[in-house]
Design goal:
3 domains, alpha+beta, five-stranded mixed sheet, 8 helices, about 375 residues, 17 strands, five-stranded antiparallel sheet, Immunoglobulin-like, elongated
Length: about 375
């Protein structure tokens, strides 16, 4: 009984705030009491005479009780010590000096270089020489795909053609090329514009034609390399339709084709509409185009942009001036204001410009 009373006294003084001391003491007395867990021991109510544990609780499970946190009894009151080892202070691995986890700057740079090399190899797998070679091959393939069938682009020309209404006459031919626009200009015998009334195309899918519905000019373009077709045009005041052949894929392309229709149109110069049109001359047409006649001798006219050729005892003159003297044998003009004259052999000519200024030009080179 003395041991039990002594144990009750210890519980009364320290409650359950020192479970390790209690357990050690109980084991020393070889009495196997069942003690509360460490979590319950921390929240147990303070011991007092009123709530002291009964003797039966020492040899069995303690009864349930309302435990309250109490201040621990100092070691001086009991004359005992039960030190609790302090927790070690926290350490920061990333900031601790001489830490094995710290990365070597050289290793970091090596990893970055490796990642950069892998990225450049993935994004740009070819060398500059290979890229340049690929571009050259692509350029050659594009050049071959867009080259003209003959290997060189067609030669551009500006021509003048006579259009006769004779049923046995051959229709005029317009030379086209894919990717090139040809302008077809309609003129009367006096060289004045002959307005278009309407037109029709034989193969609309093969040709593209533009017209402003007021002028005397058609813009014709071929959509195919070799598909041929024809064009029918109605001129104002002319009851006979004009048929024109359209032939693409030729070594020459008509940048501009002046079609001089036999007769006088509604814009003919005053005094000529009731007159008979003069016979068309192929020689004058060539002179208008700047083409020298066979067996001709070129002459020079100083102080002027005019051209002259001597054929036998006659002179063919090409100029943008109006001839006043001598009287011409035949004449022809184009829509751009160029005039062609057939005159006798003379040492000089008298001309006037578009402002009315008269000049005497000397012909040299006989």
């Amino acid at each position: 009984m003395n041991k039990v009373s002594q144990l009750k006294k210890i519980i009364l003084l320290c409650g359950i705030t020192a479970p390790s001391f209690f357990c050690n003491y109980a084991l020393a007395q070889q009495t196997p009491p069942t003690i509360p867990s460490a979590a319950n021991a921390l929240t147990a109510a303070p011991a007092s005479p009123a709530n002291a544990l009964p003797p039966s609780a020492i040899q069995g499970n303690p009864p349930a009780a309302n435990f309250q946190r109490v201040q621990p009894v100092s070691d001086a009151n009991l004359g005992l010590t039960a030190p609790v080892p302090p927790l070690p202070p926290p350490t920061d691995v990333a900031t601790t000096g001489n830490n094995a986890n710290e990365l070597d700057p050289a290793a970091v740079q090596a990893a970055r270089d490796q990642a950069f090399n892998q990225l450049t190899t993935t994004a740009l797998p070819m060398t500059p020489e290979q890229i340049q070679k690929l571009r050259n091959l692509f350029a050659e393939s594009q050049r071959a795909a867009t080259a003209s069938p003959g290997g060189s682009p067609p030669k551009p020309v500006v021509s003048t053609q006579l259009v006769t209404l004779d049923p046995s006459a051959i229709p005029p031919i317009i030379r086209l090329s894919q990717g090139y626009v040809s302008s077809v200009v309609f003129l009367d015998s006096s060289g004045q514009p002959w307005p278009i009334q309407s037109y029709d195309i034989g193969n609309p899918s093969a040709f593209n034609i533009q017209w402003d519905h007021t002028s005397n000019i058609l813009m014709v373009q071929s959509n195919a390399l070799y598909t041929t077709g024809n064009l029918v045009v109605m001129l104002k005041g002319l009851n006979t339709p004009l048929s024109i052949s359209l032939i693409p894929g030729q070594p020459f392309v008509d940048y501009r084709a002046d079609l001089r229709v036999q007769g006088f149109g509604p814009n003919a110069k005053a005094g000529l509409q009731n007159a008979l049109p003069q016979a068309a001359s192929n020689d004058l047409l060539n002179i208008l185009d700047g083409v020298a006649l066979p067996n001709s001798k070129p002459l020079s006219i100083p102080g002027s942009n005019s051209q002259a050729w001597l054929v036998g005892d006659q002179i063919y003159l090409r100029t943008n001036l109006t001839l006043l003297s001598p009287a011409w044998i035949a004449s022809m003009n184009s829509a751009d204001g160029t005039n062609a004259y057939q005159i006798p052999k003379v040492p000089s000519i008298l001309v006037a410009d578009n402002t009315g200024k008269i000049s005497n030009l000397r012909i040299e080179g006989y």
